Amino acid sequence: MKISQRIANSRPLATTAMHGRVETMRNEGREVIDFSIAISHFPAPPTVLDAVGAAVEQVRTMPYTSVVGALDVRERLCAKLRKENGVEAHADEVIVTNGAKQALYEALYAMSDPGDSVLIFKPHWPAYVATCQLLGLRPILVDLPAEITPEILATCEPARIVIINNPHNPSGKVYTRAELEHIRDWVASTGAQVIVDESYEHLSFDPVHTSLAALCDWRTLGVVTIFSASQSYAMMGWRIGFALAPAPLVGAMQTLQGPITAAASHLSQVATVAAFEAGVQQHMIDEYRERRDMVVRRFAEVPWIVMDSPDSGPYLWGDVRALTHDTVAFAEALIEEEKVAIMPGDALGVPGYIRIGYICDDVATLMEGVRRVIAFGDRFAARK
């Protein structure tokens, strides 16, 4: 059987591949602690479950909706944008998608042609680079600085599209208003368009999250903003997100989405509206902060890792260069010897680091996993 060259030369996302490996090991009866991906131990908000239950009772036959999403759903998402993000939008500027990944793929597909360049700050969510490669685009990878300044942006190679992840996965950086204004002015001067992934908008522990679209004429500038219910509302399996974009671009994304999946499921659309209308889930944020602090304190005692305390998000980003730069080999040996899965920094563009998802399971399991990582690292250091 012939396999096309464009997919034969591609590889599964490292994040999903590692999670799949964990599932395989568990199906074989082996117990594994999975830090490779963030899967919240919280259930979806009660308002979400109630809304979906009511929809099932009231509408026995679930209808197909418009490919872009039901009109009332998009109108209510516009109200969310106005209230929470300070962005005025119309229903024809919103498209509901099967998660943030679909919104990213469709936006990049509709905004670019093969060979176009895309600037991505690293470490990066692996899907950014993988999607570019699938579409024949040219990723330009730039180290994410501690602070975005005009001087740093001036050193970046001009690109057709710039991807910003705010709050950032995996570092936990939350862009300041001043940084976003610098980016706004820079892309306006270079003519680049911007995709802003705000999937973690509600997972900031202290800094205020600001949407780039609130600081500019986003229609003229060509800004696409992507949102997801997965992490902010513990709704990973619901596979729902949406994008805000200028109406012509939403129309182009709809043209692509139609033959691929058509509309997101009716029930997921009901769920996502209920989620975004529920606002910040403060009880989740409070517990995540406690977990973050607990794990960071534990790693502070370990000489071979530097683990900063992130300002946001469900991940910790650890510097293990004092131990090794080959974090792929580190991760492989860790899962075999200690049955703990982590994500090697190589998969996110930066060898010598590891990413740990710390929101899964109960606290006892979390700390047992941390103990195993430290025990393994100590043996690794002793062997050196």
TrEMBL record:
Gene Ontology molecular-function annotations: transaminase activity
UniProt KW Amino-acid biosynthesis keyword: no
Pfam families: Aminotran_1_2
Residue ranges occupied by any Aminotransferase class I/classII large domain in the UniProt entry: 31-358
UniProt signal peptide: none
Cited CDD domains: AAT_like (cd00609)
Cofactor names: pyridoxal 5'-phosphate
Lipoprotein keyword on record: no
SUPFAM superfamilies membership: PLP-dependent transferases (SSF53383)
Family note: Belongs to the class-I pyridoxal-phosphate-dependent aminotransferase family.
PANTHER family hit by this protein: ASPARTATE AMINOTRANSFERASE
Protein name: Pyridoxal phosphate-dependent aminotransferase
